[in-house]
Every structure is written in C-alpha cells, then in structure tokens.
Amino acid sequence: MFTDDIFGKTIAGEFNKPIWKKFNKAVKDYQLIENGDRIAVCISGGKDSMLMAKCIQRLQSFGKPSFQAEYIVMDPGYAPSNRLKIEENAKLLNIPVSFFETRIFESAENSGSNPCFLCARLRRGFLYKKAQELGCNKIALGHHFDDVIETILMGMLYGSQMQTMLPKLHSENYEGIQLIRPLYLIREKDIITWAKMNSLSFIDCACKMTEKRSEDNNDSKRHEIKMLLRQLRKTNPAVDMNIFRSAENVNLRKLISYHDGDKKHHFLDDYDMGITVKGTVNGGYRNK
After folding, report:
1. Which pLDDT tens digit goes with each residue over 126-156?
2. Count of CB atoms situated within 10 Å of the CB of 251
3. Is 58 exposed, middle or buried (0-12, 13-18, 19+ CB in 10 A)?
4. Can you name the residues that pair with 98 across neighbouring β-strands?
5. CA distance 233 to 229
6. DSSP string spanning the chain?
7. What is the pLDDT of residues 10-44, one digit of tens each?
8. Domains and CATH numbers, the chain
C-alpha cells in the first residue's frame, strides 16, 4: 500500500498550486485518467517523467478515479552510470519501476542522418508495444506546458503549419491505446524548482550522440525557440499563455485555409454566402 512520502507531500504542499492543482486540472479537463484505466507510466529518468510518476502514484492512492498503473523504464542502451542513477532515483522516490531493454541507441547511432528522429520514433514504438503486452489502454508521457508552447511555435516558424501538441490522442498503430500527457499544464520552471528544493538530480538525454554534440546544441531549432521565448518574456510576461490560448481560440473564418484530415477548406469556398442587407460578410464588414 502506497503511503505519501516527503516528495509527494511537497507536491501537494509547497507546490500545490503550480504542480498538484495543475496536474489534477489537466486530468479532469482533458479526461486523461478515468475509472478502469490501466496506464503504462513511461519513465525516461528525467525530471519530467519522474515527477509525472509521483503525481500519478499519488492520485492512484486516493482511488478516485480508480485505475491501475505500471511504472515502466525502457533502457535504450544507457551507460551503466545512467542506468544506476535511474534505479537510485526510483528507489528514493518510492516508485516501483520495472525495466525492459532495447538497442535503440545502437540503431540510431548507426542510422546515419537524423538519428534523433529515428530514436524518438523507435522509443515510441517500443513503449506502445510494451504497454500492449501489459494490457494497458493508455501510456503516459512527461511532456509539460513549455513543450506545448515550443511545439506550436516550431510548427509555425519552421514547419509552415498551425498545430499543437494535444493532451491526449489515439494510437494509429496500436488499437485501443491512447497517449496521455498529465503534465500538460505544468511549467518547466516549477518542475526544476521542485527538484532543486528536494535536492534531486536526474539524467538528461543520455544518448552518446547527444553527449558528443552538446557543444553544438545552439544549432537545434528547439533551442532557438527557447531563446526566442526567453527574449519575448522580458517585454511580455504573458506570452506563453497567450500562445497557448491562441490554440484554443482559433477562428476558422479568419484563416486563409485549413484542413481536416485529407479534406482542405479555403476561405473563398463560402466567401459570398454570408452577405447580408447590412453588408456584412462572415461576421466582418464590407467596404462600400
């Protein structure tokens, strides 16, 4: 039987507003965890997934909603020191993890171009497969609010598209399994503060290729977005929330075009259908 420890108590104590309340809000508003769920809680060893595991563990102890959780760690080929660090943190945080091994790092390193993309794709596939083996209907990943904001901007500035990272989605390849993101509303700075206050240290990406390229990290697009947001916050502290809400307040009548799956819509398709006697078109006023 799980009993709340000092780390869980700080989540609901000093960090009640920035972490625990936002975790519960995301779970409730987006219907992430429901009665009868069996969730594969995917732990990479970083601060985000470890905090997510503690929050899910705490929620599970209350029995409302009533669900089961499997706390899994995929070892893609960690160095022994990184594997040991994850094991020690799991023990310290009282998280009952189970490991399973893959050779993803080796495959990615031998792939040639774009090893990070391949690594991410392989990781996701193995996690879905393991969740399926465990009889889980959901997998939980540790993406947080900053990841959401950065993804929106990266899509606009580098991908020529307007889309966001959803709080949950159905798997296209593993029937009956959904991906959920319980830290969706939690800011990264609050996760960092929680870890520091509890004197916790976690691994970052432990890929050998990442370690080799650490000095060239400034070239990454995500790093550029982080720096851009840091600059924007100096003059507009609300910029993060404004970006987030822009993905909630989309006015389709004010877009040049958009697509719903394979079906594309253009503003000219029904441009003249909204003309009224007063000269309004689709909610706007015509020049006379």
Report:
1. 999 999 999 999 999 999 999 999 999 999 9
2. 8
3. buried
4. 72
5. 6
6. -----HHHHHHHTTTIIIIIHHHHHHHHHTT-S-TT-EEEEE--SSHHHHHHHHHHHHHHHHTSS--EEEEEEEESS--HHHHHHHHHHHHHTT--EEEEE--HHHHHHTS-S-HHHHHHHHHHHHHHHHHHHTT-SEEE----HHHHHHHHHHHHHHHS------SEEE-SSSTT-EEE-TTTT--HHHHHHHHHHTT--------HHHHHTGGGGGGSHHHHHHHHHHHHHHH-TTHHHHHHHHTTS--GGG-SEEEETTEEEEGGGGTTTT--TT-EETTEEPP-
7. 999 999 999 999 999 999 999 999 999 999 999 99
8. 6-213 (3.40.50.620), 253-288 (no CATH)
Instruction: Count the Cβ atoms, other than its own, within 10 Å of residue 213.
Output: 14
